[in-house]
Amino acid sequence: MFILGRGVFWFAVAALAWDIHYSGLKNSVALNGSLTLAERLIEGSRELPDLLQQGFDFVSQVANRVENVAVIASDAVLAETPKTLKALDEDIVWAFALASQKSDLSYLYLANTAHLESNFRTDVKAPTSSATGLFQVIDNTWLTLVKKHGADYGLGGFARQINCNGGRCSVADPNIRKEILDLRLDGPSSTYLAAEFARENKKILESNLGRSISDYELYVAHFLGVTGATTFFQNLASRPFAVAAETFPRAAKANRGIFYGSLGGARTFREVDDRFQQRWAGCKPYVEDHTPESVWALVGLRDGQQARRAL
User: Fold this and answer.
1) Beta bridge mates, 256
2) What distance lies between CA 108 and its chain's CA centroid?
3) Taking a C-beta distance cutoff of 8 angstroms, is the pair 17, 58 a contact?
4) What average pLDDT does the segment 74-97 reach?
5) Mapped to the 3 state alphabet, what secondary structure does 149-185 carry?
6) Looking at the annotation, which residues are catalytic?
7) How many other C-beta atoms are found inside a 10 Å radius of the C-beta of residue 281?
8) What distance in Å separates the CA atoms of residue 87 and residue 50, rounded to the nearest whole number?
9) Where are the extended beta strands (E) located within the chain?
10) Residue % of the chain over a pLDDT of 70
């Protein structure tokens, strides 16, 4: 039944493609006047294979676009994605450029991660957790980052209000706590501390795995946390066909689209990895055409060295 339904759907799409082409034929007849529609169709019969191929190409393009939308979208992201970094707020692009230089991270890592986590929106709040802002950082992680790195970015006063013990951070004054957490809604602040978070994760994950890691693997560390990413990639290597949700029940509950298929079946580690990689690859067309030089020009800097001095 499911297969039949898909067949009917694509047949309808193919019919639409034919209708569009048929309309073009009618317009051509109306302009030329000397040929009836039947004569034009007879003379064009040799074009039928090409026409069918065009129809299949059209269907394939629609299918690919639908798949890309499914891969890129996340539960908390519904807005249209800017097609290039130039469509973003200049302060955010500036932050990407400066943060990538200070942290020795790829600016594409920051741009792609912001794309996947929030669709470049600073006001996004996840419905299933406390994750908020451009990089969807949860409350305790944000408090930890402000405590450790806030003084480097003019947030020393807030950092002194945070007490951390045993991995949990708190703020005595609830109003000040809210102010600190609301800093995630500021694009540059969110970017700078997310870059510090990624730099820490990169060192730890590379040490845990005993090898260098890619930007994609660093994104998984952002998504699952560095301990979770370590466990994920170790399981991916040692037992790729085990069910990932059994090892990550909380993450699976909050991100069903990653850990479960469309019919509800639990995905294996290999399948979850494929899903992560599809999401990561899906966002590249929006930002990969920007070289570092074009980003520096966009934010008014000559080069990366000038960016370092600007910090």
Assistant:
1) none
2) 11
3) yes
4) 56
5) HHHHHCCHHHHCCEEEECCEEEECCHHHHHHHHHHHH
6) 117
7) 14
8) 38
9) 162-165, 168-171
10) 62
Instruction: Answer yes or no: is pLDDT of 94 > 50.
Output: yes
Distances (CA, A) of 226 to 158, 208, 298: 25, 9, 33
Angle at 119 between CA 114 and CA 120, to 5 degrees: 60
Closest CA to 180 of 146, 135, 216, 134: 146
- The CATH number of 85-129+187-310 is which of 1.10.530.10, 1.10.10.200, 3.40.1640.10, 3.30.420.10? 1.10.530.10
- The answer on pLDDT for 51 being more than 80 is no
Instruction: State the Cα–Cα distance between residues 133 and 60, nearest whole angstrom.
Output: 35
pLDDT digits (tens, 9 = 90+) for 292-307: 555 555 555 544 455 4
| Amino acid symbol at 72 | I
Helix (H, G, I), strand (E, B) or coil at 105: coil
Residue 239 main-chain phi, psi, to 5 deg: -150, 70
21: pLDDT strictly greater than 60: no
* Buried-state track 3-24, b at ≥16 Cβ within 10 A, e below 16: eeeeeeeeeeebeebeeeeeee
Burial 246-276 (b: 16+ CB within 10 A, else e): ebbeebbebbeebbbeeeeeebbbebbbebb
What single DSSP character describes residue 263? T
How far is 70 from 77, CA to CA, in rounded Å? 12
Domain definitions of the chain by residue range: 2-72, 85-129+187-310
Torsion angle (degrees, nearest 10) of CA 33, 36, 42, 44: 30
Q: Which long-range contacts (CB under 8 A, 24 or more apart) does 89-95 make?
A: 89/187, 90/298, 90/299, 91/187, 91/188, 92/120, 92/122, 92/134, 92/187, 92/188, 92/191, 93/295, 93/298, 93/299, 94/188, 94/299, 95/187, 95/188, 95/191, 95/192
